[in-house]
Amino acid sequence: MRAGIALGSNRGDRLQQLREAHRQIVELPDVSPPIVVSSIYETEPVNCETGASKFLNAVMEVGFERAPLSLLHALRRIEEAMGRSPRHAPNRSRTIDLDLLYCGDWTQNTPELQLPHPRLHLRRFVLEPLVEVRPDLKLPGSHQAIRDLLTCVESEPMVVRASEQW
Fold first, then answer.
1. Which of 55, 86, 153, 154 is most buried, taking the most CB atoms under 10 A from its CB?
2. pTM value?
3. pLDDT tens-digit series, residues 74-84
4. Which CB contacts under 8 angstroms, 24+ apart, belong to 41-44?
5. pLDDT tens digits, residue range 91-115?
6. Which string of DSSP letters, residue by residue, matches 29-67?
7. Residue 120 has what DSSP assignment?
8. Which residues of the chain have pLDDT under 70?
9. Residue 134: how many CB atoms within 10 A of its CB?
């Protein structure tokens, strides 16, 4: 099945953080090609602490054939290896943030994992890069394609393509 992952960083060398997370995700034993990545976008922090730096965000889609929870756990291990504490407060600056957006047609609503991601349709900083990767994707439970969801989301805060190259 295809799994979508959002990547974000607003501390340290943001671009290098995204590159390193991408490398580690691609090297996971259960991840398979094709690996598709969006451009990188620079975005204003949303609901972060005062004075938080801008984020770099991107989306990647990978093949994954195990249960989505195992991918979520692998993403959490990558975050920890890159310096993010498992007790990291929500909506705070971070070296890396990896969110599992969807995993095939899988739906789940538990305290540990919600699929598809419950706020994906509200986040321009996720939708814009996701439109590059899968514009026609319809998430489980939605009748709208990702490109149509993007037209419904507020235009602020600004999301600016920073680079097509990683």
1. 55
2. 0.95
3. 999 999 999 98
4. 41/125, 41/128, 41/129, 41/159, 41/160, 41/161, 41/162, 42/159, 42/160, 42/162, 43/124, 43/125, 43/157, 43/158, 43/159, 43/160, 44/157, 44/158
5. 778 899 999 999 999 999 999 999 9
6. TTEEEEEEE--EEEE--SS--TTPPPEEEEEEEEEE-S-
7. G
8. 88-90
9. 20
